[in-house]
């Protein structure tokens, strides 16, 4: 914050106020929260450089008295705070806005501020309740924004300890942003503001008056009156009534016409009664009276209806124009929000309740319109910030936010937390899915590898078995061939099949004495059991298998083979 070495109230001080975009004391007015000045008045002052006239009474008994009480209360506040307080004027540029503030008191380090108001019981009670109205807290928010102070001591007093109430005010989250948005909107409104003719009081202009009605009865049949003159004047007056009022002046004149016509009705009725009291038959007079009474009454009722109807029409036109203005403003904001929308609550009808003049209706609607624009700007700013966060964090996860429109107006911290939570949850779920898929793939690979090994083992085992079988067959064939080679020469007696061979004693016996000299001893024929045992030992297998092999031998074919060989 830039400290300006200015004296409050000096020409230089006033120039700085005019050149800035807004002062702290104007903040409540700009926000439509001040009962002392209307927002349109402030717009006019800022637009055309005018200043609100201050009466001598207000200057003496409010401003001068307020400065006196402030000076008396300063030492008390310094004692309570424990530091000296310095009245300063500060200026700071915030988001392109040049804002100004006059501090009743600021510590040397600018970490604590002090604001003093003249004592009144209503404000004192608010301070006791630690609850300030917007009329006061918007000023404090701007002073806090400018100075960067931690807190402000808000005091209401008459400069004495007896009539003094104080409270600490700390910046409220969101209010500074709302204040800045408000000043931006005020700056826009100032460019397009058109000065309305403001009149202290609307009074109907002087109009033609109707002549007084008199009816005088002379004798029994002579009636003197000025009803013809009155009729002419009444018709002229009625023809001059404006039945389409637009301004407060028009409405004032039409309402005055109602009063004039009402008085004409009453005068005619009184004249008729007076004449009837004087004579029993005055038909002409009564006809004229009746016609004029009807003319006056009909136009009075029409004027009353017009006042009511036309004022309602003007109100509707003002409200409708404000709604169109707000819609246009919101449409411009929505064009920047990537298809997101929001709803702005229109409270124009509520704002004009109890407003009697066109000027007050205009001011109430304009103030409400500004507030709605400020709120729309804040909402759009919130959405814009959240969209930036969304685009930055969730660019690849938009499928997780089909409900974006329902959460886009959330607090930024909460919105960011929602995005992080959903993305992290999705990542966790996706990781679990991938881990599960990888595990399934791993198990499948293991199964395939195991199946492959088993298949290869089966193939190898089959190869080994086939090889063993081949070798076995070869060995069997060799044994059979060898066995046949070792068989004795064929005798005249047919050889019995091996399977039928039984153990027999050699025909020469075992006694060598019986062997004839010069004769070769023939080995004994082996028994079937011996043959089986020999083959089993040779092939390292069981006897049952040898018997099975022997049973499958085609002995006749084998015998023929050996016969040919011999």
Describe the structure.
The chain is an alpha+beta fold. The protein folds into 3 domains: 2-192, Lambda Exonuclease, Chain A; 215-359; 494-566, no CATH class. 59% of the residues lie in helices and 9% in strands. The chain contains 17 helices and 9 strands. The strands form 2 sheets. Strands 1, 2, 3, 4, 5, 6 and 7 form a 7-stranded mixed beta sheet that branches. The protein is elongated. The termini are far apart.
Summarize it:
The protein has 566 residues and is α+β, with helices and mostly antiparallel strands. It has 17 helices and 9 strands.
What keyword list fits this structure?
single chain; 566 residues; alpha+beta; Lambda Exonuclease, Chain A; 7-stranded mixed β-sheet; two-stranded antiparallel ribbon; 17 helices; 59% helix
Strand content range: 5-15%
Give unreliable regions as ranges.
Answer: 495-515
Amino-to-carboxy terminus distance: 135 Å
Rg computed from alpha carbons, rounded to a whole number of angstroms: 60 Å
Helix-strand topology string: EHEHHHEEEHHEEHEEHHHHHHHHHH
CATH topology of the largest domain: Lambda Exonuclease, Chain A
Q: What structural class is derived from the secondary structure elements?
A: alpha+beta
Helix percentage: 55-70%
Count, helices: 17
Task: Please identify, by name, the CATH architecture of the largest domain.
Answer: Alpha-Beta Complex
Number of strands: 9
> Quick one: overall form?
elongated
Mean pLDDT across all amino acids: 81
| Major sheet summary line | 7 strands, mixed
